[in-house]
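We now fix the convention by which a protein and its fold are recorded. The integers have meaning only within a learned vocabulary of local backbone shapes. A record is reproduced here so that you can trace the correspondence yourselves:
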Amino acid sequence: MRRAHGAAKVRRMNTPSPAALRRSAQTVERLLQCAPAPPLAELAAALGVSAGHLQREFVACTGLSPKRFAQLLAKERLLAALRDGEAVLDAALSAGMSGPGRAHELLLHAEGMTPAQARRRGDGLEIVTGLVDSAVGPLFAAWTGHGLCALEFADDDGRGYDALLQALRAQWPRARWRRDDALLAPLVDAALHGRGTLHVAASHFRLRVWQALLQLPEGALVSYAQLARALGRADAVRAVAGAVAANPLAMLIPCHRVIRDGAELAGYRWGLARKAMLIAAEGGRSTAGQASRTPASPRSNAPITAA
């Protein structure tokens, strides 16, 4: 059964409700503001639900209890993750980002748009867009026929599609556009599980930054300064930060794994609460020995080439 614009019928079986996602985000914001973490009963009372209800919702949204979530975002753990991330990144870059000696097998192929494609600004290109349901809420996605070129968090109830579409249209004003949620759903699901292609357009420098981020495994974090040093551009921390912020593919290029040297989470274009949820969930899986190819940890099997 299909809805207007070719939209797939939404499956809610394993997807938290918008209300659950909002309450979980509010809980995350409270946990980020308070040290030590407030008791579960206090967190629940502030949201008008029972402690058991909040616990179940929070686990459904993050894979963690509020208590475990707070532990994984403690400054000491984040500093340890920074040390791990720097070591992994240095090793990956020194071996060559697409070399056969890398420690992790990478599955998600990424390539840059050619200079000719970029100059045409979408002329002759059909871009399919849509909203896709996921465990972290609705996602706005776009596919060029060569790969995903955008993946962004939409509002919890799916609103905001038009604004995200218009922003993407401004980048590719000559492209043909079509909405098909049903087509995009399996493509996004595959990419979130580390299989598929990304098709991006950016400067050579930004592509190098994104390629470096694809080397970071779950549980490892890196600071902006560490990332700049690993790329041999210790003097370009601001430019690195700009490249991280410009990432068009949430989760697929894991810009949420970049924090400040002092273990502060810093900004995230899709909201600090979402960044904290992704970091904590990945930290929980990695410490439990479950860091291999989960939906929030896709990896690349090829370097991103400059457009």
About this structure: Residues 4-72 form one domain. The chain has two domains: 4-72, 75-287. Residues 30 and 43 are 8 Å apart (CA to CA).
